[in-house]
Amino acid sequence: MTRRPWVLFMLALAMVIGSTLMAADAVNVPVGGGAAGIDGLKLVPTSGVSASADTVAKADGDRSALRVKFDKPGEERRLVALSTQLHGSPAGAAALAVRCRLTLGEGQTARLAVLLRDRDGDVWFKIGSQPAASGDFAEGRLSLKSLQAAAFNRDPAAQLDWAKIQSVSLGIVVDGAAKGSLEISDARFTNEPYHPSEPLHITAEPMAPWNVGNDPAVVYQTAIVPEAPGGKSCVRTNFIFPIGRHMFMLPSTPVPAADLEGYTALKFTYKATIPEGVKGLLVTLWERGGAQYEEVNYPPPSDDWTTITLPFDSFHLAGWTKDDNNHFDTEDITTVMIGVHGDASGGDGKGAVYVTDVQFVP
Fold this sequence. Notes:
Layout: H1 3-25, E1 28-30, E2 42-43, E3 50-60, E4 63-72, E5 78-85, E6 95-104, E7 110-118, E8 123-127, E9 138-143, E10 148-149, E11 165-174, E12 178-190, E13 200-201, E14 211-214, E15 219-225, E16 234-240, E17 246-254, E18 265-273, E19 282-287, E20 292-295, E21 302-311, E22 315-317, E23 333-343, E24 350-361
Antiparallel strand pairs: 1-12, 2-5, 3-4, 4-12, 5-11, 6-9, 6-12, 7-8, 7-11, 8-10, 13-24, 14-17, 15-16, 16-24, 17-23, 18-21, 18-24, 19-20, 19-23, 20-22
């Protein structure tokens, strides 16, 4: 065999092997029977909820859908779900993809949920961090990366073993009184990573008060005021730094309990007046274990409202803290801090920081 045909043969072989490996790694396992993964799903009886299930032909274009109508008059949390024996092996799955339509009364919300039960009776579950969209059919996703073990499991610290999982239940978790329907036209496990469909709002409207950490020599005053664009609320912190000494003034707010997988950046709107000698805003994200990661390119002062997006990969471990694994675990972020530190070198040391609409974005 001459050199050129041999090279072409090896390239073709490499492509075949690569394609085979990629196919082997792919996960596309319907939850139930049938191509859409909804055959055989049965309604799970739940106390406090009146519910019925039926099939609606061509509910989603040419697709049929399983429909659950429910009425939940109580205020307690309840799971409205369909269940089936597990079909296939979802080992390696990164998410549960559910194409569905949720119809609820005004002011009511629900979140997608999945529950996995193994042959020993142990359970792992996941509840979506954001309310499920109500309206047209759309794909909702639940990350399987951080499933929670049920408190009643024999060993709550044990990891899920897909080989032992026997049944899966999927549906919605409803808090408060609600009435409506959930239609599912497709449900499958996939190895495609979970991608949030919308930002996670760290601050709500109206905004809750922020905590402030400061050097005792710093004089400050913080308040929630309706001075952001459009009359929205913002946190306003006025402060005075003594001249010629390193000072810090650090307003912070907690991150709400949520699944942070798939978010890639911090976004917020601000304006700030900063004393001469202080280079910009100090923005840090704190991990659950206490490590603090700072944005090394300090956002500059601005007299006008400015929206900025800071990718998580631009944050680095702050020199005044430590991290046991030296890795920014963005899924463990608990706190957002936006403040100032440095040596005020002139003027009266006065400044002000205004912050609103803090978000994590996909």
